[in-house]
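Entry for NAP complex. Fields follow.
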Amino acid sequence: MARALITGVTGQDGLYLSELLLSKGYEVYGLMRGQNNPKRALVEAIVPDVKILTGDLTDLSSLIRALEISRPDEVYNLGAISFVAYSWENAALTSDVTGRGVLNALEAVRLYTHDDPSKVRFYQASSSEMFGKVQAVPQSENTLLWPRSPYGVAKVFGHYMTINYRESYGMHASSGILFNHESPRRGPEFVTRKVSQAVARISLGIDDSVTLGNLDARRDWGFAGDYVEAMWRMLQQDEADDYVISTNETHSIRELLELAFAEVGIDDWAPYVKQDPRYMRPAEVDLLIGDSTKARTKLGWEPKVHFPGLVSMMVQSDLAEQKKLAGL
Ligand code: NAP
Ligand code: F7E
């Protein structure tokens, strides 16, 4: 039975990846931080077969301990402070967790496998935020990185450190440069979920508006369930490498609003949407659109869910959840 250790198991991707690996017969260990993590119950409810270990990406010895207990064939490093807006307000903490945490995870694997670092395969959750002020359209593995936030800068550090450990120690370390991916499990602080939740509440008469920031930003949005499949496929390759994972389509926040409100029968969303500078960012990533040709060719991966289906899935899920909460 193959064994996997996932950091960030309480997050959106950690849950989908746990489900995928369990369905493939893996023994799955999940690293969880904190002495009484409020998301523990969620993990236990959704993926009860995951074995939970405590540890923190800022604590090297906790990572080594987790490796010693789980003895994994594959490590998926999904743990991070992942909210871009928050990263300006907590830049040092974001650098420690999202950046230096990757070095800790790589170093833990190197120390744990001192005789042969290639015996544990390693996945790093890199991000399209590394492209920031984009230097090419669309963005591929060869596009120059120009991060625009402390989060993006920390991800660039982790990305190059992963490549460096591969080149220095022969580690089977791959980096997935994933574009935005969403789902009903997305945190409510991210724009897609903020909109799907608000639309559900507005259509049920619970709220009358939603307040957002920049409506003109464009993102390449895919479905998280599809993207974790790409992570797994990367670690099944003979050679470790870096791959862009994207739908190769871009849409604006305005298009997101149009589709989300249309899902509940509202054609004109404008009366329900307010804007507030507090949701604007000090430096914006205006346009992201990926070129995932390499992943499609080498990994045989492609997204199954496209933007309209994703928005519909999220709004319908929030409608069901909000109805339940309101006792409707
Ligand atoms: P998420 O829902 O925000 O999950 C982040 C996870 O990291 C949570 O389980 C969180 O645990 C954990 N974490 C935070 N600080 C930690 C620490 N100090 N030590 C150990 N774990 C810690 O993020 P996601 O959307 O699933 O994304 C997974 C990974 O992919 C992240 O690295 C993210 O940056 C990256 N990524 C995401 C996207 C996307 O569009 N979703 C795109 C590209 C890359 P708590 O629950 O305890 O906070
Ligand atoms: O913002 C605009 C905002 O917070 C998307 C993370 O998973 O994907 C995610 O980062 C866009 C931005 O995601 C609001 O200015 C407008 O242009 O949903 P988001 P993100 O910043 O793209 C990347 C790939 C990651 O790696 C990250 O971990 O939406 N926007 N109004 C807003 N965004 C938010 N959150 N809230 C608003 O009210």
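NOTE: Residues 82, 84-85, 127-129, 179-180, 189-191, 194, 212-214, 217, 219, 253, 279, 281, 284-285 surround F7E (ligand 2) (CB under 6 Å).
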